[in-house]
Design a protein that fits this description.
alpha+beta; four-stranded mixed sheet; globular
């Protein structure tokens, strides 16, 4: 991948901000990395195999659990840096009425599962006018149901028709 396309590269954030400010950006889709947020980290695997251990908690979704390894802390930190840059850009896009969508697995709404949508970052985007839409990806050809949540800007009104639709026949 071209390093100029790395969201952690400050010059890319500046370029995207410039495109937003100049009205030259048609939309912004943000899908934060799932690895450190994943619910599977909280589910014991069968046959006695240990799966990846939890890195975040529902009550403190922006920080890594303190007793985790340096590598795990670095993964959490990288994901938050990516998320912070993207939330900044999505907020700017919302302010300029450019279509935006933050997409991630649906917030289960239960402990112990962390969620991007149960965080101060999502709350900030909601203050900018973003609203929550939930859907199942099987509506769009996914072989699995895959409940998905999006924070979308007001210019994505067509998602209102899709929201809460599901494919119950697929698990």
């Amino acid at each position: 991948i071209d390093p100029r396309l790395d969201i952690l590269n400050g010059s890319l954030v500046i370029l995207i901000r410039q495109l937003i400010d100049e009205g030259r950006l048609g939309g912004l889709l943000y899908t934060p990395p799932c690895g450190t947020w994943s619910r599977v980290r909280h589910v014991p695997l069968n046959r006695g195999c240990a799966g990846p251990r939890p890195l975040r908690t529902r009550d403190a979704p922006l920080t890594c659990i303190s007793d985790r390894s340096m590598k795990e802390h670095k993964a959490c930190e990288t994901d938050i840096r990516i998320a912070t840059a993207c939330v900044y850009l999505v907020g700017l896009a919302l302010e300029h009425f450019i279509w935006t969508a933050l997409v991630h697995p649906q917030n289960p709404g239960l402990d112990p599962f962390p969620s991007v949508f149960h965080s101060p970052m999502a709350d900030l985007l909601r203050k900018f006018g973003a609203r929550d839409i939930c859907l199942d990806q099987c509506q769009f050809g996914s072989p699995a149901r895959k409940p998905t949540q999006m924070l979308v800007g007001p210019s994505l009104d067509f998602f209102r028709q899709i929201g809460r639709a599901s494919c119950r026949e697929r698990v």
